[in-house]
Specification:
There is one protein chain. By secondary structure, the protein is mainly α. The chain has a single domain, classed as Winged helix-like DNA-binding domain superfamily/Winged helix DNA-binding domain (Arc Repressor Mutant, subunit A, Orthogonal Bundle), CATH 1.10.10.10. Helices cover 56% and strands 6% of the residues. A two-stranded antiparallel ribbon has the order 1-2. A hairpin with a 5-residue loop joins strand 1 and strand 2. The longest helix has 20 residues. The protein is elongated. The two termini are 23 Å apart.
Length: 124
Amino acid sequence: MRISARTQYALRAVTELAAAPEGPVSAERIAAAQGIPRRFLDNILLQLRRAGLIRSQRGPDGGYWLARDASAITLADVIAVVEGWPSPDEYPGVAQPLADVWATIRRHEERLLTEITFAQIVSA
């Protein structure tokens, strides 16, 4: 599985939120702590908020926080929002069994990623 820089940044941002004490965390703090370019992070946070994984509040005491408990958000949740899941490959003729192999690998990856929560990551 190839994970884009955008998805890696999203995973790191959600991990930062999962590790934060109660209350909103500013985008500036997330960007600085994780070395994520701020403009890039703003787009990622917007995408995660629209998907319902995080919430936000404006103002001087504003910032971002998880919409659910960290134990209820998996790596797969974030990856699905940012990357989506690849569509099945189709191969012609004798190469058709390769499509089945790739589909099996993707199912295993997805199953593993749905088992790992952000609570587990921050408690490691």
